[in-house]
Amino acid sequence: MRRRARLLAAFAALALALGPAIAEARPGGGASSGSRGSRSYSAPPSTRTAPGTATPFNRTETPREAPGYANPGYQPRPAPSYTTPSRGGMFGGGFMSGLMGGLLGAGIAGMLFGHGAFGGMSGGSGFLGFLLQLAIIAGIVWLVLRVIRGRRAGMPAMAGAGPRGAVPNAYAREMDGNAMGGAGGRAATRPVNIGEADFSAFGDRLVAINRAWSSADVATLRRLATPEMVRYFEGDLRDLAARGWRNETRDVRLEAGDLAEAWSEGGTDYATVAMRFSLIDVTRDAAGQVVEGDPNTRQTVTEIWTFARRPGETWVLSAIQQAR
Fold this sequence. Notes:
Elements: H1 2-17, E1 33-34, H2 94-112, H3 120-123, H4 127-153, E2 172-173, H5 177-180, E3 190-191, H6 196-214, H7 218-224, H8 227-242, E4 246-265, E5 268-284, E6 290-293, E7 299-309, E8 316-322
Parallel strand pairs: 2-4
Antiparallel strand pairs: 1-8, 3-4, 4-5, 5-6, 5-7, 7-8
Helix pairs in contact: 1-2, 1-4, 2-4, 6-7
């Protein structure tokens, strides 16, 4: 009986470790993350590349209560007045992390050493009591996964692209009054003119961020993205490392792109662009075996990226949203 309990406990621990599998491990993890200043809770305009809309942010540090807030991505740490997303922990941090981690750790350790999940359910050591304990743990795991999944839920072809995939002329200037103006409830904004050099920079950032992500080069990511986005990247990299996995995105090619909107507020310029790009996206385990993706098949992805720039500085990634 004790051997069976240990086997079941080991299986439960393995299932827990692999629990919230990363379905899309590329930069951003297939989620919508980051901040768009006062427009973080407004969907960017549709474009030819992304004719639908962008999914709302399920990871953002912009408080909904402050529509005029410029961009928390530039802050050294999250503001204390709201709850920040998980930064590498499976249970979302804070009280929930401590509670769930403690319960599950105590339960699994108890089973492994033959004491029952939580002390044997009032001292009983029968098989029925053990099954009840296992059901309790399974219920807690299910609840945690449900919370995590709830958080995650929520350009014409560029012929003659350069070696780094940036062809600014392929971006369409879809800048109507609604996109450029300060709509009701938004902070005071002004239009920003986006030129050829800016479009080239956006394509360069797409390639460079994927390259830095693939090599887990956090120092480079800090130069290419806001501190908020870097926190998400670091958390996702830790999630992969905890499983002994490594994600590689290579041969990134920007296929098409549209400028959705560009504006300035609070001393920061923003540009939101829809980008369709293809790449090789593969996740491998510690032994080099492929666990996700196909090293011989290119994938095509459409995402909406927002870049931010302060006077005299270069564009950095401020947000990634999924197109739908």
